[in-house]
Design a protein that fits this description.
The chain has 80 residues and is mainly alpha-helical. It is built from 2 helices and 2 strands; from the N terminus they run E-H-E-H. A two-stranded parallel sheet has the order 1-2.
Length: 80
């Protein structure tokens, strides 16, 4: 499995197909490495990124359809 942790295109370069080119390269790399899937996270409100990911074939993450979509959780640590 290959996980994309951080993925973005700087504002001056957005809308030029760079995100698609980057995802195409990641998909090829994943295939060359024999990965079973690619995972990433995206904020619900990031409509532009979600549209790109959906267009490129990314789906909601499910390990078991009967259990529903996976959720991304965090445990906030207290600071002194």
């Amino acid at each position: 499995m290959l996980n994309i942790h951080d993925f973005s295109v700087m504002k001056p370069y957005r809308g030029q197909g760079i995100g698609k080119l980057m995802l195409d390269r990641v998909k090829q790399l994943s295939k060359n490495l024999g990965c079973c899937k690619i995972t990433l996270e995206v904020l619900e409100g990031n409509a532009i990124a979600r549209k790109l990911y959906e267009h490129e074939g990314f789906l909601n993450y499910q390990l078991n359809a009967e259990m529903g979509n996976a959720l991304f959780l965090q445990y906030p640590m207290e600071t002194d």
